[in-house]
Amino acid sequence: MKKIIKNGVIVTASDTYEAEILIEDGVIKAIGHDLQANDAEVVDAKGCYVFPGGIDPHTHLDMPFGGTVTKDDFETGTIGAAFGGTTTVIDFCLTNKGVPLANAINAWHAKSKDKAVIDYGFHLMIAEITEDVLNQLPSVINEEGITSFKVFMAYKNVFQADDATLYRTLLAAKELGALVMVHAENGDVIDYLTTKALEEGNTSPIYHALTRPPEVEGEATGRASRLTGLADSQLYVVHVSCADAADRIAEARKKGWNVWGETCPQYLVLDQSYLEKPDFEGAKYVWSPPLREKWNQEKLWTALKNGELQTIGSDQCSFDFKGQKDLGKDDFTKIPNGGPIIEDRMTILFSEGVKKGRISLNQFVDLTSTRAAKLFGLFPQKGTIAVGTDADIVIYDPNAERTLSAETHHLAVDYSAFEGMEVTGEPVSVLSRGEYVIKDKQFVGNPGSGKFLKRSKFGEHSAQQNKELHTSSN
Ligand SMILES: NC(=O)NCCC(=O)O
Ligand SMILES: [Zn+2]
Ligand SMILES: [Zn+2]
Q: Which domains does the chain have, with CATH numbers?
């Protein structure tokens, strides 16, 4: 059905202006004033911002990890995402050494196909580089439309790849047109420190943080960046948690290397002291890399403001406190890593970032949507509001006040990482390709309506195409 959004303030990564939007057949047909279409539903956005739907470039839905599986799958996870204003997620497809890549990709399609309520894509984990893997990569990119690879420098004996694998992945990505993503922590040093901590009888959640100090993240971030420079390739560092790693990215960019960095809401508002909560509650806050000393938060906000970090991912990877996190009751290394962030990703950035004057409104859109669309081959179909783009749109009340809680979130997991936090701003309605997923704060979407997105190769969107899209917008 046609829709006209009236009375709102459109915000993109570059512009803020009042105009109406005509939506037809799932795309934006016109942007202007006094738009007419007889049979269109009028959507009143009075008092609201009209944002492009958020893009979360870092999720783990229905993922096996640490002897269990994430609580939120592609249905509950994408419903939560939509309530928070996200209309696209890119999830990590895990692979195993010696197993055809197609098996992993098919497994991820099976997990998502009938469940996702918003559009989605996949990144592909690279566990090893062999001649066989190299022969499979062109079809991953050209036929499957999976144009980003993920290499883990940590999780020894589980996901960790060696430096030669990272370097060869960077070379292959350069040749084929993919972006390499990296979990940057020095897994060998962490393995040594965790073994030593357990030998000394230190088993509680805080030791998760103490055995993964900022230096091991900074060192791995610097190493991956240097290898990227050497390969003349492109790198995206996921979940940057601390000043040490953010500084390494800023240095790499100054040298002219193609390195980008993502941070996550948890690192911007939570800190290492949360791991010391009594009654094992600290386990709720176990992420890798870990939460850091509080002073790192302002450094990360400054890096976002200055453009030294470019995106916000959720790293959504939820495990129930009861029955999953407690696998590590007597041994912090057995606590499944990760937390529920997908629903609150944009909320935290708006409330703590825009409302507190740390970033601008246009930066908010760039950090939560546009930049990810550009880096991951979705722009301009996704990530902006312009004629011809998908009508993925969030109507956002900037003054709504609420308290975040597991009582009111829409995920399946049994706790909220931000329990009791007071925030300002909330999506009122969310459209995916012109159809309501959230209408007046109620879920009205359908599991299975989300489409798999075959993405363009790295850097393929043309400057001319972008220019045309922006000049036709008002
Ligand atoms: N980050 C985390 O603790 N869990 C999810 C897996 C990963 O991204 O490393
Ligand atoms: Zn990671
Ligand atoms: Zn992750």
A: 3-51+386-398+424-471 (2.30.40.10), 53-375 (3.20.20.140)
